[in-house]
Amino acid sequence: RFAEAAGTDNLLLITDSYKVTHHLQYPPNTTTICSYFESRGGKFPYTVFFGLQYILKRWLVGPVVTKEKIKEAKDIYHLHFGQDVFNEEGWNYIVEVHKGYLPLRIKAVPEGSVVPTRNVLFTVENTDPKCYWLTNYFETLLVQVWYPMTVATNSRCQKEIIAKYLHETADNLNQLPFKLHDFGFRGCTSVEAAGIGGAAHLVNFQGTDTIVALTTAKKYYGCKTAGFSIPAAEHSTITTWGPEGEKEAFKNMLDKFPTGLVACVSDSYNIWNACENIWGDQLKDAVVSRGDKGTLVIRPDSGEPKEIVVKVLNILGEKFGTTVNSKGYKMLPPYVRVIQGDGISYETLSEILEFMKENLWSADMLAFGSGGALLQRLDRDTQKCAFKCNYAIINGMEVNVFKDPITDRGKKSKRGKLTLELHNNEYKTFEEGSGDPSKDLLEVVFENGHLVKDYSLSSIRNAAEIDLVKNPNK
Ligand SMILES: O=C1OCCC/C1=C\Nc1ccccc1
């Protein structure tokens, strides 16, 4: 009954109101409109292109236009505008001539590509000259790719930081895929957003508690199990035992999950008492006896992150002993580790890891959880994602279309036929048809209602992999 989140599955309604009137506003005898999408720059110098495939499969692929949807849209827009502006004839043409399949061609850089900003990432053009008005109708929907793209980018930039510290202070990078765990489900604006953003994080990592990321990755990116998690406590499962019962609560965690990793939030009352006297003394034998069959992951969840992490590690080092690894940094025994899931973001990671390094701790002793900063504290301006018309055919003449506001030259758009090519082994966007179409890295992913390319998460993960993993001796 209430299946559709937005209250509709009618594609004709998935746009901005003003676009419903745009078919009347182009020059007479316009037959082609081509537009492109780019990041104009922003917080990160590159973007990981990810998430267009979700939008295509969810909304645009197949016979998505029907007489019923046209009727519904016509009625809604009549009430919404108080007049008849809706392009009923144009939509009926799509049903009659194209059987409801959208006469559009979308070319995009392969998903997972890591592209410096200010490069064309995808283009949209109409394939039927009568449907010039269709190209920009779906800008609204297509530009929402800013979200998965920006999450994947932010996540990858954190992977680079963690990899750097593992490279400097750990024996290997084997645990890297599990070093940044998605805690962000509850902080997302909707279940759908959590699925999309959670899947974007899984381009770079394999640790998540955002379960809908698994189902989104499976349905739209062909990955059966895109992420993993472990048994873990929350405050309620500790505090219900009462302050006097914290040791019992902790002991229960070890008993109920005797092998493998188990995480236990330990700051309900006094993290120092928990580490020093409970984990490090009263339950020490129970922790040690797990050996390399089971790892206790202690979770602080409050205080100044870098101070807390190092102080917890120092206490655990005192209690359980330490060894020094091949890089000269301290390691705890395999049965005890730490996860910091409070206050983690691209901005705070480095200071925590640097402080650990200054205190001679290997980065391998700590994992991170991130929520709001990972999936929510981003917007379309973080990477200045924009969609603009670059080319048109009007009266049979090619037109290189552009904007170049004197009030903000940063908003100048690319003009003419665009290609994305490798030039001196770097991405370069060629404008005004100056490129070589045979070298264009943009691939046709959608054409006349059909999905032409279907990228798997594994191929996307490979494309997005960071250098330090590809070339560990760099
Ligand atoms: O604190 C949390 O906030 C919300 C999301 C989940 C969560 C913790 N989960 C967890 C998973 C694996 C190891 C440790 C904790």
Rg result: 26 Å
Strand content: 15-25%
Mean pLDDT: 97
Shape: elongated
- Helix-strand category: alpha+beta
Number of DSSP E strands: 18
Total count of helical runs of at least 4 residues? 16
Question: What's this entry about, in short?
Answer:
The protein has 474 residues and is of the alpha+beta class. The protein is 34% helix and 19% strand. The strands form 5 sheets. The protein has a 7-stranded antiparallel β-sheet, covered by helices on one side. A 5-stranded parallel β-sheet has the order 6-12-11-8-7.
Give your account of this protein's structure:
There is one protein chain. With 474 residues, the protein is α+β, with helices and mostly antiparallel strands. 34% of the residues lie in helices and 19% in strands. The strands form 5 sheets. Strands 14-13-1-5-3-17-18 form a 7-stranded antiparallel sheet, with helices on one face. Helix 5 packs parallel to helix 13 (346-358). The termini are far apart. The model has no long low-confidence stretch (mean pLDDT 97). Bound molecules: (3E)-3-[(phenylamino)methylidene]oxan-2-one. (3E)-3-[(phenylamino)methylidene]oxan-2-one is lined by residues 181, 183, 209, 229-230, 232, 263, 297, 299, 339, 341, 369.
